[in-house]
Amino acid sequence: MEKHFTFETLASLDQRYRASLINSLGGFKSVNLVGTINKNGQTNLAIFNSIVHLGAHPPLVGLIVRPDSVERHTYENIIETGYFTLNHLNATNYIPAHQTSARYPREVSEFKACGFNEDYKDGFIAPYVQDSKIQIGLKLREVIELKINKTLFVISEIQHVYLPVRSIMPDGFVDLESAGSITCSGLDSYHSTQRLSRLSYAKPDKLPEKI
Amino acid sequence: MEKHFTFETLASLDQRYRASLINSLGGFKSVNLVGTINKNGQTNLAIFNSIVHLGAHPPLVGLIVRPDSVERHTYENIIETGYFTLNHLNATNYIPAHQTSARYPREVSEFKACGFNEDYKDGFIAPYVQDSKIQIGLKLREVIELKINKTLFVISEIQHVYLPVRSIMPDGFVDLESAGSITCSGLDSYHSTQRLSRLSYAKPDKLPEKI
Fold first, then answer.
1. Tell me, what's the pLDDT at B207?
2. Which residue, among A151, A129, A152, has the nearest Cα to A140 in the 3D structure?
3. How many angstroms separate the CA atoms of B107 and B82, rounded?
């Protein structure tokens, strides 16, 4: 049995039901902890599932920040210092990672409140998450405010990447499963993955092969 | 052992190695088939892994289109008609779905070339993928060209959603695993998922519970 929602029926749904439904529709999502610091040395850690690849050369990442959310502390720190980190979640830390979405007061660091250790390296100002296997240091390049709903689109450049040597395949592909990275869906569901396969570069004259 | 890449070492990598590496770093991604049609009735189908949630009310989705890719046929059709569809992948169709990324000539429909059936319903102009369990019909609202690398950010509004009744939980959450949806990583890796758990809404005074 198939259910059909229209623009009008979606608008008539209870707000929380609608948020949960619409957040589920795109499919499984990237999920990362975003680490920041302000000019007074106050750190912040927040979970984000709205990260998107923008290009490899220069290496660019897009981050969506909703206007009325706890993500604003993160955003304010990014604007203040120009830097932040992305840190992959794994099966052992997704529960405290989810906890970073609670509305802590500004003076509370979610690193401390949720049991994460700050990791500073190579002179980068923003804190990484110590037990995260894949850590990325980013520099703010541009913010675009979407007129349609005041959402902020934060465009940043990759400055540093740290990851396990064993997870990097000979062609540059990163085996995220070997690094323990997980995915999420909707607003609150976390999932481990199992590879179906990698597929060869697609060409019109033949079907892709498993590689 | 940990590997460290900097902005400079990333820039010095072989182009394909770098693309594969950088595309892997954000984590697991949404993966969808985008269905379009032009004014002459010529259809197009293309795989996208750069979809991002922008808001629930109104229900908005962002789609990243790279400037120099086969995705341009899709983009041109979206501009021409103002409409397109998103269709979830599953374990039985991800190989032909990957094949839609081959550089077919403009006059070839990837629906036909890759073995997908077009599904038209409720007067919507763009074709859905018939065997896709979750189908979304979207209306173009705005395109933003990112000055930094000419990437196009396509903002669209959800007009129609079709999904299995059994996959919709009482609170609106969609159980993507029950719908057979899969995820992807890098440029060419496809993965099924296994739920770790859903977690309760986070509050500062207590740890989230599995729900």
1. 87
2. A152
3. 20
Residues on chain A touching B189 (C-beta within 8 angstroms): 173, 195, 197-199
Q: Which of these, B71, B50, B70, lies nearest to B61 by C-alpha position?
A: B50
Sort out which chain A residues have CB atoms less than 8 A from B202's CB and list them: 98-102
Distance CA B46, CA B23 (A): 18
| Cβ-nearest to B174 among A21, A59, A190 | A21
Taken in order A66, A20, B71, B49, the sign of the CA dihedral is positive
Distance CA A178, CA A199 (A): 18
Take residue A150 and report the two structure tokens written for it. 């005041």
Per-residue pLDDT at A36: 98
What is the complex's ipTM, to 2 decimals? Answer: 0.96
Indicate the pTM of the whole model: 0.96
pLDDT in tens, A70-115: 678 899 999 999 999 999 999 999 999 999 999 999 899 999 999 9
Q: Is B188 on the interface with A (CB under 8 A)?
A: yes
CB pairs under 8 A between A and B: 389
Angle in degrees, CA A153, B56, B185, rounded to 5: 60
All residues of chain B having their beta carbon less than 8 Å from the beta carbon of residue A129 are none
Domains of chain A by start residue, with CATH: 28-191 (2.30.110.10)
User: In this complex, do A51 and B27 lie within 8 Å of one another by their Cβ atoms?
Assistant: yes
Selected residues 58-117 of chain B with any CB under 8 Å from a CB in chain A: 58-62, 64, 66, 86, 88, 91, 94-96, 98-105, 108, 113
d(CA B102, CA B43): 15
